[in-house]
Amino acid sequence: MPPRTRGGYTSSAPRRRPTGSERRRRVQLREVEPAADRDPVEHPQHDRDETEEVFEGAPGGPIDRCILRSFDKHIAAKIWLGEDRAPLKLVNHGAKLQLWELGMERSRIYETVHRSGLASLTSCSHRVTSRPMLSAFCERWQPETTTFHMPFGEMTITLDDVASILHIPVTGSMISFPQPLRVDDANALLVELLGTTDVEASRETEQCRSPSVRLLWLRDHFSTITDASSDDDIMFATRAFLLHLVGCTLFADKSATSVAVVYLELFRDLSMVGSYAWGAACLAYLYRQLTTATRFEVRQLGGYLTLLQAWIYEHFPEMFSSPDMSYTESRPRALRWRPHVIPDSLQSVRERLDRLQISEVCWEPYVDHRAEHPLPDIAWYSGCLKCGQVVEPYHPERVLRQFGYIQTIPPRPFTPPRPDRSILLEQYWERWTDHVLTDQSRGRRCHYSGSGESVPEYMAWYDRISHRIVQPPQLRSGFTTDARSSLPSHAASTSDTRAARALTLLRLVISGGKEQSVDVFWGALNEAHGILAGSDETSASHSTPSPAPASHSTPSPATLPFFSPATFVYPPAASDDPPPLIVPPPPASVAPPAASGPPPPLIVPPPPASVAPPEPALDSTASTTVYVRAKRKKKT
């Protein structure tokens, strides 16, 4: 039987893509005859073809492009093929907010701003943003999943992050506009809501060449109004200030100088400004800006970059952050950090992220902040976020580790509906409590807080569908032709994950101090051994611990299956990494287990400064060099 193609007829010729008319006919049929047992609001998606397309792998991954379908146009694919671009130009208005402050003489304006829920934006915006750091993270953003694809799994900015970092509302009415605003409509809106004349409004939109106004124009016309002015002037100035505020923060576009007049419609009724879900709209807008910046030809990044930069500081504190020691938990978390420009180049940041380990991530950074700002239930919402004509999917099931749960293989991401289906989206958003992840979908919590655990099969699946390494091996710093490719294989990635989980577990126990009982240490060692011995290559002799000698009531370190005194190597004395777990050697009465083959030599830690160094061997150049240097240093 000849195969059935997408056009709806049978032929022996290869399959072809459906034409536009065929797609429209399918959409009409589906809209006329909906399934009786299906809620049209339950899963808002684009209409998809009945036959799934088959995608070939890309160089450097993904092997299976069933998820990242547009990867060919991604900046990471271009970098892997040898093409590169400079760090993105960042749109940041942190300094402009200081040019229009609300003091005691403008208390009536501040009261309205405070009731809107946006007052925290006046003080928490970063004046400095790091181009290499934000550009490197933008290269890891994937539009299909709206997540950052890190070497160990996916991460993203959640509604919980927005609420904790900015302290703005994430629940409320969806920010929606019926259609894009035309220039004539923008002029009429300026006259009605800001009290300008037709001539002033037309002159301003003509200068912007769009239905927008300059931020400078708003400050020049309305920043001088005080409480002594008339009620109408104060109302106009309040709307102008709010428009200036969201244009500098939540909805900063790539014009870098103006703000769209369409947002002024949200401030028509000043008593209703606090009823909008500003945090959800901000997140949708930032998602779209990151998606646009993943294209190779794009050179600029908009959106509220304070949110993105503070999110990086929170989850990667050891790599990029500089904390403010005067911070208190009652303030937005964006104020916890001192923003600075990192001295590294874009390539250097790429390589640091390529080498990033799962133990270097702070998965739950807001534990101390929960007393002041609990986890909002809407953070578990799985659906679409909307900001005007921007609609983006939101998938908390892909980043369960950021909520303290064990990461499982998530379902395929859904495609959001078109913005013109606003009624569908608003109904879905209004019933968000029906679309949060259930306890069954969340799965099990991590054994230890912040351990970032995942199911065993997750990394093999992730390695197949993702592009984990951005910088090609042949383009890395210090690469030579004899160097082995550092692309991790499936087996290596799985073993790396086990090692990271075991190290995280041991560090958590060690940080608890000596006051803990022996049972806690013994249980942690046993669990770490179980994690490390989970591979198929582990021998049967290592699957169960050796029996303890009869002369001891508790097992000695020598009886642990992963400890061998003859092969134990002590780490260097000076290191920036956290101290590893060093097991002491067994007592002399206990014989070490027999080792297969000649054991490597035991490396003894360096002697203390008070002990004289041993006499160097004449046939050892390295030892002689060390001894001469030490002697010269002593003379000096």
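The record above closes out task 2.4. Task 2.5 opens with a second protein, given below.
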Amino acid sequence: MEAKILVFIVFLEVFVFSNLVVAARYSNGGGSWKLLKKSIGISSMHMQLLQNDRIITFDRTDAGPSNLTLPKGRQCPIISGKKDCYVHAVELDTVHNLNVRPLTVLSDTWCSSGAMLPDGKLVQSGGYGHGEKVVRTLEPCRTCDWKEDYNVLISPRWYASNQLLPEGNIIVVGGRLQFSYEFIPKSPRPEDHKVHDLPFLKETRYSSQIPNNLYPFTHLSPDGNLFIFANNRGILLNYVKNKVVRTYPVMPGNVARNYPSTGSSVLLPLNLSEKSTPEAEVFICGGTKPDSYDKARAGIFLEASRTCGRLRITAADPNWEMEEMPIRRVMGDMIMLPTGDALIINGAANGTAGWRYARVPVHNPVIYRPAESFKADRFEVLKAATSPRLYHSTAHLLSDGRVLVAGSNPNHNYNFTVPFPTELSVEAFSPPYLTSGKPRPAINAIKPGNNLAYKQRISVEFQLNLNEGQLGKVYLTMVAPSFTTHSFSMNQRVLVLAVNGVRRMSGGGEYAVEGDAPGSAAYAPPGYYQLFVVHEGVPSVAKWVHIK
């Protein structure tokens, strides 16, 4: 017993020292943190923002008791053959009062995936055990709860990825031991009722025990095809014809990027100001050595990678442009900001994804500015958080421009007595644009309205109180809300709209920016988006718009 205590103390001292060294190097970064709620009762493994600005977040159902019980009067369901009176999913009101509303989910959502349908309904698929073929839906209303349909999926989908398509349906790609894809919701179409083989997912496995290609990164290309990245390379898939139309070079560096060697990936902003099809560029950061999971099981926690790669997937001759983050990172979340920059947040500097397999939490977010010409100017280290956010942590952009951060549970169940305990708190990080002191635009109206059609001309009226000087650069962005889990924000998308001019409406700081809605569903799949006015790098609070 004394030996175990000594090992724990030594580990704790090493952890504290390593953590202080990392934090001390970057203690004065920009941005700010605010604790929103000390506990929401559950650990946020999965997260989605709805168009009513409520966050839906949930854990797994087989981790034992959470820290929140069902309200009095609500019947305790039977889960896995046992009566379960604990809450595993909640709705968080991010605008009014931070109220937590318990939700009821019965099937096991462990390591599942999701997306929002064009009508705003959250569709959530797969999971573990009796949840592996379940499709769950949640409508955005104040009393709605999960509806669960069993055996909808043809194949079990555990660690799969979802992407909303131009047709308004969802493709579900991969999963553990599933080298295929299928579509949901199921319709009378024959292609919805069969599994489509995807040998690429078998080819990219590192091994049967350490796949390094789960939760494949999926991004809808503006040509209507689907970019899929797994382990260290990508393809462009015509999902209708089940044909690989392009094969991309292997990403340099001998680093695995997908679960459990978890990095993160985003589609950089699509610039719609050009009349032709916009260029599309994927940005992938972090991960670790392919054998890191095996090493961690033996108590050896390899350093994570600090490398990133940019790949223009629409280029005639695409090649990786490699860069380095200021801090090495595995299990980092990449969140696209309304300015078009990427925020890299959460994660660890050593180890890999999995139960207790990471060390040295990375507390400092990093902002990446893809438009900067020189690589040295693209990264900036920001203010450190205080709470470690490791395995099973999440992050999501809010309509007010902050980033919500929650979760972290590298334990089999809820455990608060270990060096990296289960984290129930919710924080908000304000990027530097919210702490710069610059004036912030405020949207007054969208004309002709919030329901947009493709190629429609729109006028966004906004208020901007300039203390001095002239109006600076103004642009419009549309951001698709994402489903975030395991360091990948599925369906995340930023569109920089074509702007035709900005005019002053009055002497009281009222302006109108004229722009064009996206030109096709391949650029912006039908559904809800956050619309921002950005002035000199400072975004407004978003207004929700719908396009179809």
